[in-house]
Amino acid sequence: xxxxVGVIGTGVMGAEHARLLRDATSGAxxxxxxxxxxxxxxxxxxxxxxxxxxxxxxxxxxxxxxxIASPDATHAQYALACLAAGKPCLCEKPIAATxxxxxxxxxxxxxxxxxxxxxxxxxRFDPAYxxxxxxxxxxxxxxxxxxxxxxxxxxxxxxxTGAMAVTNSFVHEIDISRWLLGSExxxxxxTAAPGGDPMLVTMQTDKAEIVSTEVFMNxxxxxxxxxxxxxxxxxxxxxxxxxxxxxxxxAQSFGFPSNWVxxxxxxxxxxxQAWVDAARxxxxxxxxxxxxxxxxxxxxxxVAGMGxAGMGxAGxxxxxxxxxxxLYA
Length: 329
What we know:
Layout: E1 3-8, H1 12-23, E2 28-34, H2 38-45, E3 49-51, H3 54-59, E4 65-68, H4 75-85, E5 89-91, H5 99-112, E6 117-119, H6 127-138, E7 144-152, H7 164-181, E8 185-192, E9 199-205, E10 210-216, E11 224-231, E12 235-237, E13 246-248, E14 251-253, H8 260-263, H9 265-280, E15 287-288, H10 289-306, E16 314-318
Parallel strand pairs: 1-2, 1-4, 2-3, 4-5, 5-6, 7-10
Antiparallel strand pairs: 6-15, 7-11, 8-9, 8-16, 9-10, 11-12, 13-14
């Protein structure tokens, strides 16, 4: 039986999730969409039911599972509503606008006694990252010592200011570093260039591994994500993000995408299929509500230690979290 999925929010990511459900996912179909803009909702729906009230979509008998791709400030409310309705949800990052709200979701899920929330950290499904994690688990490069991350955007929009380099971009590196290493971050230090861009964030894990991340929001040349894992016996890293090479004018080259959507198109597709498969089986996959809370909490603690509206440098910041509930063991 096909899983009836409703999508809340039909902006860039919501529209892409709707497309994946219509055209690229087996075992599910797009049953409904909701957006504050009726015209945009209709364009994404392509025949699916259109709602103007997200809570009505969540509680509708037409919808069995929900994708939350609405503005960040609404995520917690809608995730909690999905838990109350007993419906699995795939919530775009962040799980909530604040760590306190994220913890509310964790506590509500623990009270329910079953996991229904998946946070959309799609890099966990990217083939390059999954192969790197497999190499770490196989042990061929020895015990991990360093993880080097690069996160570069061609240009940040005008509204992207202050701490958002941490709370909207670096959060991906927080989650994927925890996942790649199977470790928790225990401290962090931030060094920023004048104006705050680029910045270098160095974290240490509970296994004494070092994680370094360059976050460069205005790198000009394109969208570029890279990771290299250094072990005691060798290294593993991503290859160039391309399928073809061009030989022209005495040079070999490839192109970088302009943003994250083309770079992670396959990751989004694999994430959606895995989430649908898990939901149909009464299970969850990918980043949990606890993972979402920890990532948001880590970002909040780093920003709090930076000062200057998130634009300055910070000494060593000790990272602390409440005990992990048994539900997420």
